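Morning F.,

Quick status update on the modeling queue. The single chain you submitted on Monday has been processed. Sequence for confirmation:
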Amino acid sequence: MIKHLVLIPDGNRRWAKRKGLLSWQGHLEGAKVVEKILEKVLELKIPYFTFWGGSYDNLTKRSKTEIKFLLKIYENYFKRLLEEKRIDENKVKINVFGRWEGIFPESLKKIIERTIEKTKNYNQHFFSFLLAYNGTDEMLDCVRKILREKKVKVNENLIKENLWTKNLPPVDLLIRTGCEGDPHNSAGFMMWHTAYSQFYFSKTLFPDFTPKEFEKAIKDFLKRERRLGK
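Structure tokens below.
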């Protein structure tokens, strides 16, 4: 099966626009989908699951109204995670990576920190949320750390040890939704961990992305021959 699966949810705003709704309503529907996908991840016993909840640009350059609602959705979501019994039953460790600590309000930061602290010793499943995350930021921060440490010999291990996501394994499959004729990566997303990843691009906008299609993407991956550069 898959050890590490990543999901990039694209299409919330387009979904809302096509239905005559506001952008934040698209994000709200997307949050409901995340819960269903997490259930499927546990059901399929995928140990590592990473979800890109928003880039740094998403959370700093969009309208103040949209950002305000996004932060509220995050707050409500992590509150539910704190009380979710399946997190405890399945020993799910929650991690959050990105520049969120520098831009999130204190109330939201405290909830996220409580979630991380509560689950820090769990070791059966690992759910990682990327918030205010850009892959280019992660790599730049890695390089700066190495320069500060004045390491002369730079190798693969040294780079990985200085990444925010250093404890995550390589990504086996990356699923991106909402790709209507433009399958692409964004902001250097997890560039180190996706060096040999397989990709699955779906035209389905994220609020319409079902657990059934999620499972279809996994079955498609399992049929592929992975050469890993050989």
